[in-house]
Every structure is written in C-alpha cells, then in structure tokens.
Design goal:
With 1165 residues, the chain is an alpha/beta fold. The chain has 45 helices and 31 strands. The strands form nine sheets. An eight-stranded mixed beta sheet has the order 15-18-14-19-22-11-24-23, sandwiched between helices. The chain has a six-stranded parallel beta sheet with strand order 3-2-6-7-1-8, sandwiched between helices. It catalyses: ATP + H2O = ADP + phosphate + H(+); Couples ATP hydrolysis with the unwinding of duplex DNA by translocating in the 3'-5' direction.
C-alpha cells in the first residue's frame, strides 16, 4: 500500500488532532535500546512513561519478538491502562498515517525510518490484535491472580477461589478472633489461654485485633519461629536478654559479686558519719544488703534503685547524700551502672515475655485464618504474591507452567521498581530464571532482556511493605547474575525534567544535596530543564501560637467546625491551624479572582491548576475544604475519604438507628438536625427540653405543631419492619423525605460517591448476611470503608490530596500545607523485630523501661527509617510543581527538629536566599522566596519596597500584587464565634518526657470524666476506670490505679458528683446571640437541677490556677460566654460554672459576678 493511499484514508480531522511523538533525548534513547539489559533511574518529571512506552515499541521492531513475549509490570491498574492505551492508539494510527508523519514517529523513537520498518510499523497493530490478550501490560497482583486462577491446584488453592476485598478481610479477621477466644477457653494448648490473657490486658481487644491483622500475610515469618518454649527463646534472643530461666535466678547470680559487695561496704563506711537523713537511710540499705539472703536481696532491688538512680533511671548526683571524699564517687557511678545493666535485663525479659505471647498467639491465629480462607475459598492480596512466588520458585513446576501458558516470556519491563517489595521481586526473578541459564539463556537470534525503571528518591510506600533497600538489593542480584553469564546490566539515569521550570528544579537540586545519599540513594544527578526560568518558590513562616490575646491576626474572625474543647489533642497547635487555613483560602481566592499568566501552560491560572498537598489526611485538610467552600472557591473533596466520615452517610445511619430504636435520643437528635429534617440547634434545644424519663420521640409526638416532622419520622418507623437495608436507604433517599435532593442541595455534589458506595455496601451485606437493618448497623460501624475519588490534572476545581495520592500527578501551582508536621511523632505505635533469617515480624509496642537494649536500637532504627522516608516524601511533594510552589504550615511553640520546614529553611539558606517582608503573611511577616526572571517587579507593600531580594542569576523579583492581596474581610457578625477557640497563651510548652506524660495523663482523665456515669454504688468504679484505661490507652505509661483514686477523690465533692450522674449531659452544643454576635460552642458537662444549671469544662493544660482569679483570661472569657449563652437560652435559671484541671483533678468554682464583669468589659466580641 502506497503512502498516498494511506494519506487518503487518514481524514483531515485526524490529521489536525494527530500529535507526533516527541523525539527522545540522548539519555532517553540510551535507556530504550531493545537488546540491552537496562536499570534506569528516572527522576521525577523526566518522561518515564514515554521511555517505557518507547521501549515496548522498540522491542516490537526486533526480529522474533512477538507481543506475547513481552511482560510489562506496572504499579497500578490505572498505570497499566494508560500505557496500554498509549501503545494501542499509537499502533492504530500508524496503520493509516501518512508516510512523512510515520517517518517522524519512527525517527523520534530512534528507529531507522526506512521503507522496511515503515511497512512493519503498519502491521504491528494487527499483530497485537491477533495476540490473545494483546501485550501483557499488567500489575503484579493482576498477573499473580491470573496465574493462580490458571493453576489453582498446583498452588494448593481451591479452584474457583475469590479475592477478598478489605472489608471482607476485616470481617474474617474478627471471626477468627472469636474462634481464637473460644479455643483459648477449651483448648489443651498450655500457652494459648495465658498468652491471650496477657495480650488482652496489654493491648485491649481493639488493639489486639489490629495487631493480629498486621500479622496476616506474614505466615512464613511467624512459622519460621518454633512454637511453645521456642517462641520464648526466640523472643529473648532478638530482645537481647542475656540469660536463660527466670530473672530472679539471673539477679541472684549477678548479686553474688564480691566487687559490688566491697563497693557497698566501702560506701556504707564512707558515709556513716554523715548527718543527713538521706545518708543515714543509704547506710541502712547498704548494710542490710550485705547481710541479706537471696530472697531478701530480690525484694531489696527497688531500694537499691532508689539509692543510686533517679526516677528517670539515670545515676544520681554524687554530690548529694554521699561523702565529699572524691574517691567514693567513682564507686557510686560504677555501682549505678551495675544496677542499670541488671535493670535493663529485667525490662528486656519482661518485654521478651509479652513478645513470646504475641508470637505464639499470632502463630495460632494465622492457622485459624488460613483454615477459614480455605473453607470459604478466599485469598487475600498477600496470598496472591506469596503463593505465586512459591509456585514459580519450584523450578520444574515453573518451567512446566510457562510451557502450559504457551507464553514464554523473553522481555520483562518493570515500572515503579522502587515500590516493588521483596516477595514481588522474587516472582520477577523466578520469571527471569531462564534468561540467565548459561547457554540456554536465549532463543536463536533473540536477546532476552530485563528493563527496570524506578527512582530511589520516590520510594514512599513503606506502609505497603516496600523499601528502597529492596530496589537496591534487586539491582545487585540482577547485576551478579547477568555478569556471571558474560553480559552487562547497564545503569542509566534521566535527569532532564519536562515538568518543572528551573526555579523549582534549582530548589529541588539544593534539597537533594542537603538531604544526602542515605535517604535519597547514591548517584542521583542534578535536575535540569529546557522550560526556562519562569516560576517561583515561596517558603512562609510557620503559623504559630498567638503570643497574647490582643495580638493582631489580620482582623479576621474564624469558623471552627470541629470539637470546641481547646484542651484535646489539637491543643498543641491551638488556633494556628484555623488561622492558616483561613489565610490560605483567602490567598487562593485572590489568585483565582486575579489569575496570573502561566508561561508553562500559556494560559491564565484556573482553579484546576492548583493542587494542595498534605502529608496525611486530618484536620488541616478538613479545615481547608471548609474555608475554601466559605470563600466560594471551587474545590474537590479529599482524594480518599472514610465512608464513616461522610456527613450524608452519618445522617442516613442516624435514620436507620432511629428506626430500630426510636427512644435513642442521640440518633434522633442527629437526624433532626440533618438535611433530612432541617432543624437548627435552637429548635432542637427548644423541643429537647422535656420531662425526665420521656424520650425525645414521645415528646415530639405530643407536640401538635410538629405533626409534619412526626409524620416523616413515622414513615421511617413503619417501613423498617419489612424493608432490608438497601430498600430502607432507598426509602430515605427517594421516599417522602426526598433525602438525596436535600443532601446534594445542602452538602454538595461530592456526597454522591459516598451515598452510592454506601448503597453498594448494603447490597453486599444483604448478599452475605441477610436483610436485618440492626445487623447492618452493627456490621457497618465495626469496620472502616474507604472510598477513593478519581483525581486528575487540570479540571475546574482545586485539588486537595495527600502526597502519596499525588504520585504521578502534577500541577502548575502546588501548595504544601503542612510542612510543620513532626515525623517523629507517630501515633500508630508500630514496632517490629527481625528474625535471624532477616524476616520482619510485628510485635506489641514496648512500654516504659522496656525501651532499652536491642529493643531501643530497633526503635531508633525504625525512627531513622521513618525520617528518611519523610525526606523522600518531601522530594515527591516538591517535584509535583510545574511553575509555582508555595509552602506553609503550623507549629507549636517550638519547631520540630525533623519537620519539613526545618529542612526547607536550611535549603533556602544554603541557596543564600534572604528573607523578604510580605505584608499579608501573618505570624512572622518575613518569607523566603526563590524566583526566576519572568515576572515584573510589583510592590509588595510600602515596607517591602526597600527590601533587597535574593538573586538567582538575575535580580530576584518581589511577589506580584495578586499573590499577597488578601480577600476582603467579612463583616464581624458573618460567622459564629466559638468561645473555646481562644488559646491559653500562658500554657507551659511540653518540653520533656515528664511533661508529656503529665499531659497524656490529663487527656486520659478528661476522656474518663466526659464518659463516666455514677450509679448508686461506686464500689466497682476503680476497676471500671482501670480497665477502661487498659483497653483504650494500652501504650501510655500511666498508673491506672493512681488515676482511678484521683478521680474518686474528685467525686467526693457532693456538688460535683451529681455532674456525673446519668441525668447530666455530655458535650452539649449551644448557640446564642451575645452583643450582636452568634456565640456557639460545646460544653463538656451540663447538669440541670430545678432552676439551677451547672456548667463544667475540663482542661488538660500543663499548668493550673489556684483560684478563679488566676485563671488565664481566654479560659475565663470562654466560661463567661458559655454562661451568657445559657442565660440567654434559659433566662429564668441560675447558671454556675466550674473548671476542672484534669492533670491534677483540681476543681475551681467561678463566681457568677466575676463572669458578668468579664462580659461587661467586652466592648466587642
């Protein structure tokens, strides 16, 4: 067929829309040589996907290479689909492409565009279509699932097995936990019952299930350890315990030490003449030790600790309580070190005991889990990898399987290789075995190749079991095998970015130099670009606490849509998260209203060009969503959302709970204030006041003016008896309530995905468990369901997502919004130790003194690994930006040593970028800015005009006016005031372990006081409190008995004890207009007694006040506003206020006159 004929068949419209291939750069072309084994390191934005696609196309031009001989393994299904689409579409176009354009495409790929190759190019599309399944471009999991489905018997699986989803796996784990508990009661296993009891006491039921879930997929690791006593010996070995048998025996052996006895004798004689009580006490203890028998010495160990060690387990000062004779000081320190060594072994032995219990319990549980999966013909994702590796590593079986598949693989391509874990590499290596089998390594005239593309710097998925060390180790193994057969594995690098402009890349280069080789890998090259020097990198100071109540924060009031208690876990960041979110939302609003021209895209900035990145989902993301909505900025929801967190789903669930239990006042209140009924809180408070013992539902029925609402609620009740969960949800959405329309109108279109996923979940539940609404509610609430929103580049909405979710994406304007987060402050308490075979096994988190020896080393290593990954995560975040990069965040009083801001500030300083003044940036005013030469100077403000900016090649220009022009402030009464959001600026910062422990204790007491209810007898209350702490705070180093006694002491106050009776209301929301402003909040405890109302608020502040006059002004002001609001709502009632400092269980009464005086002094709220 002639080129002319082909051209005639290629329509004019197709010619207009046709996009020729970009010509490969020199480095890219070196990376796609089809006959070479290549290990390609591709930095962010360097055209990795284009190179991978070009490699596939180049291979198809090789003699004796058929589409079925290729296996391309990608990281995600979306990546596989994108690559398949690119290749298929390109081959389809080549069939009818005019000769000159086909010539260009082949030349761009580095293929000789001679007539023979042009003719071959036009046949490749048909060749791919004729191949069953086409080119095998797939994820490793999809490949394994297909392999196991074809050979289930060989893989020891049930034919027709199904892959579990996450929710189904969670259900089976809970079911296995129930079997485990039953077996512990009835089984003859000498360890099981005691081990399970220890773990429940240590972790609580919820955390024990989480621990066992982490063990799933690690059967090989756990079963490599001997069970029974063997687990105990293993736990002692890896923990660093240096003795066999009991600690008592070890201690007695260590105590029979002539040197120590001699030290004790010398020290006792040396201070015998001292007159201080401390010295006299020490003499008594030392001499008692010298005459004590073994049992007495064991009981005296704590006394010895008190003599030589502080409460923090450090040697006591030799200057206090000892003789001034310097010759004794060395003996004191020597003895203290001896005690520390014994204590370390004692603590390690205690941890080894709980670790052994965890190992034996996990081994037994995993057997149950395996049996349950087999009985149900199910496998999980870990099974797919493990069983496939096992299947292919049996050499004879692997060869036979590949023969039966009639698909001998000659070329393997691995995408995102840095995110491939050890077991996945073992599968790839098994598929490559024939490649390196000496003389049989290749077919006739066919070179069999391995191609890997990845980037050590972008290895960020350790929570999925990956490690960049696996990536490096895989290279070493492949290099050795290929070298042994006399060939080469060529290492190539790509550093030219087709994404980011030079100011972005200059900053990235400085960052990679600063971060170093340990976290980012060796041998990385500087990034460079041909995209010019347009762009800007801006580092804002962290938003910190307001130093005093009158400090100007920009003149803006703020909306706070989270719990109002300032002393909860957000206290460390006080108000700064809210101020930052508000400022950032205004900034985004200003640049959308006055969009800059983006030279990179040759267009003005639009909302879809903005991407906000977070290290993790949490309060900052929710606040940004709220504030952006407030300023009418088009914004998409978070990229991943827990279904249980969806407002629409929560409201539907409240309706279902009401249907099965109409007297559930809380669920009915949630339903009434949802979009379904549309009540506001004033209406709820008005009709919620009812006689004691009368449910809210009965009270509503008795109100004639609420008959319409009563009819709607009655329709929910009447249909619940015969509808299943699916039909009932449909009834709420499309029945008389018209729920779907109301949800979308009030909560936005973003709720549709969550609602549809909720319906799908109900359908799935009914197919497995029946049509009970009550069972569905229980089933839904015990497990998390996460939904993922499709995200892409551009579009019409601002994107908010995690850095992990942004992998593979880019945007002209990128904002890093939480650069102050502390990577060392982990809350999940993951902990692992390694077996002698280098298997990693999860274990319970160590407590207190158990964090020593090998255990401490493992914790420090894990912490360093986490810090290294945090640095790689920052690299990924920085390289999402095309032209603009804005970085901001919040801090407590001190900036964490290893947070992103610390790194970024140092990078700016390394680049010799000076700070400049920015008028609209609160909490610091000074910013770092690195920029190119595209923008003309614009006055930042009068003060900034005199500032010299840094220079990068050319004079650094100031921020354009659109970047710093704040959105117009709202009127003072536009938004509600939350009184508890005024932080106690006088609070002492948490700066040492003792203060941290005290703060945690206060939070725990706060939690208990919020939820506690006193019955007629308090005899069992201490046990209840102790068990509650063990179940909910298993990792906190607190004394449950001490907390229980402290709370009991507090309850001895008869006036306060009534607050914790069943009639008291917890977390009561209130709202009222005070001095022209809406005041809204949530009070911890409220008790109604006749015409008197008692308000109690709990504080976990690190310092307390002795009297009400010493209360910090923000707290006094908060309580004054609360009381004023309650007076407004209940004008005929007396209102009293109390503060409880939970760290000390200290109660302070605040006189009403004092609170009235505060309100009168408020000129403006």
């Amino acid at each position: 067929m002639s080129n002319k004929q082909n051209s005639a068949k290629f329509s004019d419209n197709e010619l207009v829309n046709f996009k020729p291939l970009f010509k490969l750069t020199h480095d890219q072309e070196k990376g796609v040589q089809p006959a070479e084994n290549i290990w390609l390191s591709a930095s962010a934005g360097t055209g990795k996907t284009q190179v991978l696609t070009a490699r596939v196309l180049r291979l198809l031009f090789q003699k004796n290479v058929l589409p079925r001989n290729l296996l391309c393994i990608t990281y995600t299904n979306a990546g596989a689909a994108e690559m398949s689409e690119r290749i298929t579409q390109r081959l389809a176009k080549w069939v009818r492409l005019p000769g000159d354009k086909l010539f260009h495409d082949l030349d761009a790929l580095g293929i000789d565009p001679n007539p023979e190759n042009q003719k071959l190019a036009r046949t490749l599309f048909a060749r791919v279509l004729d191949t069953p399944g086409g080119i095998n471009i797939t994820t490793i999991h999809s490949f394994c699932q297909k392999l196991l489905s074809t050979f289930p018997t060989e893989a020891d699986l049930i034919p027709g097995f199904q892959l579990m989803d996450d929710r189904e796996k969670s259900d089976i784990i809970r079911q296995c936990m129930n079997i485990l508990a039953i077996d512990a009661e009835n089984n003859d296993n000498e360890f099981l019952s005691l081990d399970l009891k220890k773990l429940v006491e240590r972790l609580g039921e919820h955390n024990l299930i989480k621990f066992l879930a982490k063990c799933c997929g690690k059967e090989q690791q756990f079963w490599s350890i001997a069970d029974g006593d063997g687990a105990s010996r293993f736990a002692q070995l890896v923990s660093g315990v240096e003795f066999d048998g009991s600690w008592d025996d070890y201690f007695i052996k260590a105590a029979h030490n002539e040197n120590i006895d001699q030290n004790f004798s010398i020290l006792a004689d040396g201070i015998a003449g001292e007159k201080s009580p401390m010295s006299k006490n020490r003499v008594v203890i030392l001499r008692q030790w010298l005459s004590a028998d073994n049992a007495q010495k064991i009981s005296m160990f704590d006394d010895l600790k008190g003599v030589f060690l502080t409460k923090e387990l450090t040697p006591k000062s030799v200057k206090t309580g000892w003789s001034k004779d310097a010759s004794l000081h060395e003996l004191v320190l020597e003895t203290a070190e001896w005690i520390l060594q014994i204590l370390m072994q004692k603590n390690l032995a205690e941890y080894a005991e709980i670790a052994a219990s965890a190992i034996r319990t996990a081994q037994y549980f995993l057997k149950i889990y395996k049996n349950e999966k087999r009985n149900l013909a199910l496998i999980d994702y870990d099974d797919m990898i493990n069983q496939s590796a096992k299947l292919l590593q049996q050499s004879a079986m692997g060869d036979w399987i590949k023969y039966k598949l009639d698909q001998r693989i000659d070329h393997i391509l691995v995408d995102e290789a840095q995110d491939t874990n050890f077991d996945q590499w073992s599968i790839i290596e098994a598929l490559c075995d024939d490649f390196f089998a000496g003389a049989g390594a290749g077919k006739e005239n066919v070179a069999r190749t391995i191609f890997s593309v990845g980037d050590f710097k972008q290895a960020i998925f350790s929570f999925q079991g990956t490690s960049p060390l696996n990536y490096s180790a895989a290279f070493e193994r492949f290099f050795e095998r290929i070298d042994n057969m006399g060939s080469d594995l060529n290492k190539r690098h790509l550093a030219e970015s087709f994404r980011s402009t030079m100011p972005i890349l200059q900053f990235v280069n400085a960052y990679t130099q600063y971060a170093g080789d340990e976290p980012l890998g060796e041998g990385h090259s500087d990034h460079y670009s041909q995209l010019g020097d347009t762009g800007r990198v801006t580092l804002l100071p962290l938003f910190g606490p307001i130093e005093n109540e009158n400090e100007d924060d920009g003149g803006h009031e703020h909306v706070f849509d989270t719990a109002d208690n300032i002393d909860d876990d957000e206290e460390e960041y006080g108000d700064q998260k809210f101020r930052m979110a508000d400022w950032l939302a205004q900034h985004i609003k200003s640049i959308i209203d006055n969009p800059p021209f983006l030279k990179r895209t040759n267009a003005y900035l639009k909302p879809g060009d903005i991407m906000i990145l977070l290290q993790k989902r949490g309060q900052i993301g929710n606040l940004l969503l709220s504030r952006l909505h407030e300023y009418d900025v088009p914004v998409a929801g978070m990229d991943r959302v827990k279904l249980q967190d969806s407002l629409a789903v929560m409201d539907i669930l409240a309706g279902m709970k009401f249907a099965v239990q109409p007297d559930d006042d809380y669920s009915l209140a949630c339903l009434l204030t949802s979009p379904l009924l549309g009540w506001d809180h004033d209406k709820l408070l008005k009709y919620g006041l009812r006689p004691n013992g009368k449910s809210l539902w009965r009270h509503i029925l008795s109100q004639k003016n609420l008959s319409d609402d009563g009819d709607l609620l009655m329709s929910l009740l009447s249909t619940a008896d015969y509808l299943g969960p699916v039909e009932y949800i449909e009834h709420i959405l499309n029945g008389p309530m018209g729920g779907m329309k109301k949800f979308l109108s009030r909560l936005g279109q973003g709720q549709q995905n969550a609602i549809h996923e909720f319906i799908n979940l109900a359908i799935d539940f009914e197919s497995r468990h029946g049509r009970s609404i009550q069972k569905f509610i229980m089933w839904f609430e015990i497990g998390d369901v996460e939904i993922k929103r499709d995200v892409g580049e551009g579009g019409s909405q601002v994107q908010i997502m995690t850095v992990h979710g942004s992998k593979g994406l880019q945007a002209p304007y990128v904002i890093l919004a939480d650069i102050g987060s502390n990577p060392d402050k982990k809350k999940d308490h993951d902990f692992s130790l390694f077996t002698p075979q280098n298997y990693e096994i999860p274990l319970p988190y160590p407590k207190g003194g158990q964090k020593t020896g090998n255990v401490k080393k493992a914790m420090e290593k894990a912490a360093q690994t986490q810090r290294d990954e945090s640095k790689r995560l920052l690299y990924v975040a920085l390289t999402r930006a095309e032209e603009h990069l804005l970085m901001c965040g919040v801090r407590a009083k001190d900036i964490p040593e290893n947070c992103w801001y610390t790194h970024l500030e140092q990078v700016m300083q390394n680049l010799h970028v000076d700070q400049i003044e920015a008028g609209d940036v609160p909490n610091g005013k000074m910013i770092f800015e690195l920029t190119g030469t595209h923008y003309h100077n614009a006055a930042l403000n009068d003060a900034a005009n005199s500032q010299n900016t840094a220079k990068v090649g050319n004079d650094l220009e100031q921020l354009p006016i659109w970047a710093v022009t704040a959105a117009q402030s709202e009127k003072p009464d536009a938004r509600p005031l939350a009184p508890s959001k005024v932080e106690d600026a006088g609070d002492i910062p948490i700066s040492n372990p003792q203060m941290i422990a005290a703060a945690r204790r206060g939070i725990i007491i706060h939690d208990i006081l919020q939820h506690i209810k006193i019955t007629s007898s308090t005899l069992k209350l201490p046990q209840i409190i102790v068990q509650y702490i063990k179940d909910n705070y298993p990792h906190d180093d607190v004394q449950p008995d001490e907390i229980a006694q402290l709370i009991l002491n507090l309850l001895h106050d008869k006036n306060l004890a009534k607050i914790f009776q069943g009639d008291a209301i917890s977390e009561l929301p209130i709202a009222a207009v005070i001095k022209g402003r809406v005041v809204s909040g949530r009070i911890d405890k409220v008790y109604f007694e006749g015409q008197k109302i008692t308000l109690v608020d709990f504080k976990t502040s690190k310092k307390s006040a002795a009297t009400y006059k010493e209360l910090p002004k923000p707290i006094a002001r908060q309580m004054a506003l609360y009381c004023a609001a309650m007076h407004k709502i209940y004008p005929n009632h007396d209102v009293e206020a109390k503060i409880i400092y939970t760290q000390y269980a200290q109660m302070i009464d605040i006189p009403g006159a004092y609170l009235d005086e505060i309100i009168n002094q408020m000129a403006q709220i």
